[in-house]
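Quarterly update from the structural biology core.
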Amino acid sequence: MPARMMKAIRQHEFGGPDVLRYEDAPIPDVKAGEVRVRVHAVGLNPPDWYLRDGYKMLPPEWRPPVQFPVILGTDMSGVVEAVGDDVKDFSVGDAVYAMVRFPSGLAGDSRAYAEYVTVPASEVARKPAGIDHVHAAAVPMSLLTAWQFMIALGHDEPNPLQPSRHEPVPLKDRIVLVNGAAGGVGHFAVQIARWKGARVIATASGKNEAFLRDLGADEFIDYTRTNPEDVVRHVDLVIDAVGGPTTGRFLRTLKRGGALFPIFPLGFSGAEEAAKLGITVSATQVRSSGAQLAEIARVLDDGTIRVAIDSTFPLADARKAHERAAKGHIQGKIVLTVE
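Predicted structure, tokenized:
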């Protein structure tokens, strides 16, 4: 019996946005423990372009083997179309959202840039009723990242980059600096810190000031005019949503006993300086969690946390969406819509 087909974005080689092809692909079979979802929207995240270009940002020995063709994408919102025989918590017709198989699907096993995707039932949660599929698809990886860094880790998997388990720190009555505050993770980190009672300093380009103050930032620094590390002192926590080799510059902004959480920790070389200053530097790998997405749904429903959409593109225009991402200065999230 011939396979049922769907439209998907696939690539047959590593490269830039031009390798993304809108083409036919088999609809995946639903297995035990899974649901199959008819996708309505897909959220874009940095791992999408990391995989697209062959994980060039990772050391060669860390790059997962990839078998082509591959379908990118982890974040989606849609409607359950089929359930595995042993799945009891979801039914056909349920509106759901998820971060699919992350990080276990780093080699391309998440496959959300498609009309249909199968998802382990443990990674799925009911979509917040108060937001549409576009906004729900923008949530999973970015808000789970902020949540697992700042609220609750939600898993016991070891972190190969550090010997100690990542632990969120108290936020109430603390001063929190969020760098890269207008982006996907950043705009959620600002809202979490404010919700939990912190005073928030947001760093982004000047055009984002009104946006971030509306989300709850108490102070704003335009990094194109002022280096935050030159003017900020004695903060309790820095969430560096940019991360990478430059994250060490924020050590001087922290008080003794403070913490620096780089969302992208690769390249940090200031461990010795941090130890001398009495500063904890810690990171974690975001992991799929249907239970945490169910908890998150409540604060999305009641408006405690809002989702900002930078731009939307039809699934067929995934290449254009990746080109938009490459330009940077994203305010919130980029989303693909699936008709």
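The first strand starts at residue 5 and ends at 11.
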